[in-house]
Amino acid sequence: MKRQISRVTVSSMTDRRIDSGLLARRAIKNALSSVRGLYGKLRREVIHGNDRIERQNCVNEMAGRLTAFGMQLDDEEQRNLRNENLENELRELAMKMNN
User: What pTM was computed for the model?
Assistant: First the structure.
């Protein structure tokens, strides 16, 4: 079967090639869109992931910690750890303000 496309008569075989070309182009466009979305998501995870890790470490340090043997630290040790953490944070802030 032949039909006329923009003043040129083409066969049904050419018509199929045009249709498959459009389908391929659409598939590539969808794939690129998916890749862009995944890249953006990955990039956001990398940027914000470090903040989450630091926050989680802080929570772990401030909460009742367990030793390697599974024994809970006593209150005095927890207080000492908290004080050390606060001192470290204050030192870091002082260094940032001086720079």
Answer: 0.32
Residue 68 DSSP symbol: T
DSSP bridge partners of 8: 5
Beta bridge pairs of residue 66: 72
**What residues form DSSP beta bridges with 12?**
none
- Cα 72 from Cα 13, distance rounded (Å): 77
Q: Which tens digit of pLDDT belongs to each residue from 34-82?
A: 888 888 777 776 655 555 656 666 555 555 555 444 455 677 887 888 8
List all residues 6 or more positions away from 10 whose beta carbon is below 8 Å from its beta carbon.
2, 3, 4, 18
Q: How many CB atoms lie within 10 A of CB 61?
A: 13
